[in-house]
Structures are given as structure tokens and as C-alpha cells.
């Protein structure tokens, strides 16, 4: 019992302690609630103070901003006056300092532009803009001055042009001025135009003969070797200009644009020189144009490589000088235009000769006409330049070198035939003219000796030559028939039986008249033949000998037989010698004088006046 009583007392004391603790906690909680209410009250009392403090902070911030703005306004209002000494005397100041001053001027200009409402802002803006214009003008003048002498040309011992690489100091100076111009907002097209003009002026001093003119001295009338040197000068110059633009302009786009503006003027001047040469009063030989075209083609790849735009710009489109491909197009246009002109000259060669040739040499002696010799000389030159000809004609799939040569000969034959047709009423002279000219053509056709020109050689000597020889032989047969065959008809025996007078060996008047007519007609025909054909010329000795031999073989046997048969008969009482004027030997001697080309003054004057 005592144990249970002690245990109960302990429990009672614990309970009492717990209850006391709970009471104390309630008291603490009540105190905390009261403190919280007090804090809330203090906060309510301090809120206006907090708001006022925040307002004061905002006001201070606005004051600071206003002070900063006023300071900035003050600085920008006087910036033109302060920076003018630096910007207008850039050479006396460090480049970094100059750039900072220029940037400060640009910032001030932009600020004043956006604060025009401020009193005095417009005036300050005008001053800043005026200073900026002066800075641009001065920078551009300095830039142009350096660019014009930055790269100089000089001739080496062999006469080749060489462009001296500019010094690093000059390049750096030009690049600095360029940076200033770009920072100042300069018109880039104006800058590029001025750059191109100055570089072209510098180029003309070393490439052109007249620095004040626009010619690049590419005169097509000069020898090919000289043109090759000039073309090499152009290539070296263009390559040097590309390198120079890359040194000055750090931006690849701008560098290529500057190069285009400079190089395009070189190409335009080159094209102008070619056009002037083609329009000059001195006619250019078609073969010369062929050689010039071949020269340009041999340099085309190098020139195209020199003007090829950078990879990053090749897909870009543009008009005029903004087109990255304009230089490539200009180079190809020069070659293409020259090719077309060369082809026109080649194909118009023969008609031009026909129009220019005269007729008087045709009507006088039937000799070889100038158009034959000119055309054969032309074909000879063409064969010497067969490779360039094939390259030129390869641009046109419809025409080959073989077809061209065939056309040239065909046109010549047509022209000669047309010339011969002008000899109306003089058929024998017409045929002799064709004999001489066709024979000259057949014997003078050039040879194309290079193995790769075997097709031309075959066309000329296996196809064209036999054809022309056949035409010559046809004309030869016609000439012989017209000139000599008619003699035999007049030397036939009289159709009527000869009658003798009674009691003698003298023919009657009627029978004598028949023989007189025969002899008179033969004499007249022989004299006329001798007079006419003695003045004729046969260019080929074998043909001349053949014609004389044919004349003798055709006429003399018939005449000799007639002469021997009837000369012993007395057919004329008083003037037999008049009719028996020529013995067969004398007639043969006259025939051997044919085609000597001799003309008496009276005969020559008569023939010229009849032409």
C-alpha cells in the first residue's frame, strides 16, 4: 500500500508540472500574438515613410539622369568645335585617337539628330554635319592621293611590264584612310568609282602611249608579236590590280568590287581599241584577224582566271559593276565579238574582191585576173593558219575548214565566170580568160603540209584541183573550136566544078571567083587571128605550146593541101600574088607568133576604147 501511495504522488506531481507548462505556453503564445499585433501596427505607421523613401530614390535617379543628359547635351553641342582640330589634321595625331574622335563625332551627330527639339540643337547638328563632310572629303582626297601612286609599273630588260609591290607602310595608310571613310558613312559607290578612276589613270601611264587618252594601244594593225606583248601587259596589270585591292580592302566583297571598278575600265579601253581598229580606213586582212583571235584564245584561260570572282560571290546576282561576273563577261565578249568579225571577214573576202576588181585587164589579153592571185594568196595564208581557222570555225557547227576552203574556191570560180560573161561578142577571149584563170587556180592551189591538215590537203588536191582542171580543159576545147576549126571549113574544095576558058589553062571568071573568095577569106581570117591572138597571153607555157601546136596542126595541113592543089592554077590574070599572099610556111610562122602578148599602140588603144 505504501508503494502504490508513493507512485500516485509521483504521477500527481508530473501532471501538475505538465499543466503548469501548458499554462506557461499559453501565456507565451498570448505574448507573441500581442507582439505581432504591435509589429503590424508599427509597420502600418512606417509604410508612408517607406513610400516616401522610395520616391526620394526615384527622384534622385531622375536627377542623376538629368544631370547626365545635360552633361551629354553640353558635350554634343560643342563636339564639332572640340574635334575639328583632330579630324582636320589627322596626320598629326595617332590613328586610334583619330578613329575615336571620328566615332565621337558620329555619336554626337546621331544624338543631335534625335534631339532636334532642344534649343540650339539644329545649329550644333549643322556644325557636326559640316565637319563630317569636310572629314570625308579630306579622307577621300588623301585616300585617292595614296591609291594613285600605291603600285607603280616598270619595264624589265626584255620590255615586259612589271608592277612593283607597294610598301607595307603605304598599304597600311591607305587601309586606315579607307576605315575612316567607311566609318564616316561615305557613299561606297562613289568611293569605288573614284578608286577605279585613279587606278585606271595610273595604269594608262605605263600601259598606254598617251596618259591623257583612253587608249591601251591594242591596235590590230600592229604585228602579232607586239599584240602578244600588249596582251601580256593587260594580264599582268589585271592580276596586280586584284592583289592591290585585296591588300587595301580587308572585306572580300569590297575588295572584289574595287577590283571590278578598276579592271573593267582596262577591259573597256581594250575593247574600244579593237573596235577603232576594225572601223579604221585601213582594211584589216581576214587572216590577221584569224591570228589575233587565236592569240586571244591562247590567253583566254589565264585572263578568265585573273578576273574570276571569289567563291563566296559567284552565286550573287547584280547589274552593271555590281555583277561579280561582269569582268568574265567582258573578256568573253571581246573574244566572241572578234570571232564574229573574223568570220565575217573570212566569208566576205571573195565578194569584196569581185566588187573592187576592174574589167580592163579582162578585155585586153585574157590574162590571169587579180582576183585569182588574191584568192590563192588568201588560201595560202589560210592553209598556213589551218589550226586557228579550225578553232574559229569550231564555234559554228555548220561550217568546217574543208567546207570553207571549198566555198572560197567555188566563189572564185563564180566570180571568174561572171567576169568572163562580161565579154559579150568575144567568145574566144572569154574562153581564153577561163583557161588562164582556171589553169592558174589549179596549179597554184596551196599545200597544207601539217599531218593534222590532211583533210584540207585532200579537199584541195584530190577534189577541187581535178574539178578546176576539168573546167580549164572544157574552156580549152571551146577555145580551140571557136578559133581554129572554122579554117578547115573554108579550105574545102569548091562545091562547083572549076571551068577553064576555051583554048587555055586560065579559069573562067566564075570559077576564078570561087578560088579568090577562098583565098581572100583564109587570108583575112588568118590575119585577124594573128592580130587578135598575138596580143593574148597564156600564163601556162605547156598550154601556150599546146594551143600553137593545135593551131598549126588544125590549119596548116588543110591549107597546105588546098594551096598545093590550087596555087598552080591560074585563077587571076593580074593579082594572083594578092590571093597567094601566104605560103603554108608563112602561115605557120604567123601562127607561131600567137600568144606572145605583143600589142601595137594602135591595137592597144583600140581594144581599151572598146572595153
What does this structure look like?
The protein is an all-alpha fold. It folds into 4 domains: 2-77; 187-347; 350-481, no CATH class; 491-610, Exocyst complex component Exo70 (Monooxygenase). Helix content is 74%, strand content 1%. It contains 22 helices and 2 strands. The chain has helices at residues 2-77, 79-87, 95-114, 121-148, 168-183, 188-207, 224-248, 252-279, 286-307, 326-347, 349-356, 360-365, 370-384, 386-393, 401-421, 427-444, 454-490, 509-533, 541-566, 576-579, 584-591, 601-610; strands spanning 153-155, 161-163. Strands 1-2 form a two-stranded antiparallel sheet. The longest helix has 76 residues, at 2-77. The N and C termini lie far apart (183 Å). The model is unreliable at 601-611 (pLDDT under 50).
- Average pLDDT taken over every residue: 80
Q: Which percent bin holds the helix content?
A: over 70%
- Widest beta sheet: strand line-up: 1-2
* Sheet with the most strands, sense and barrel status: 2 strands, antiparallel
Domain unit count: 4
Distance between the amino and carboxyl termini: 183 Å
Pick out the low-confidence regions.
Answer: 601-611
Structural class: mainly alpha
**Radius of gyration, CA atoms, in whole angstroms:** 55 Å
SSE topology string: HHHHEEHHHHHHHHHHHHHHHHHH
Shape: rod-shaped
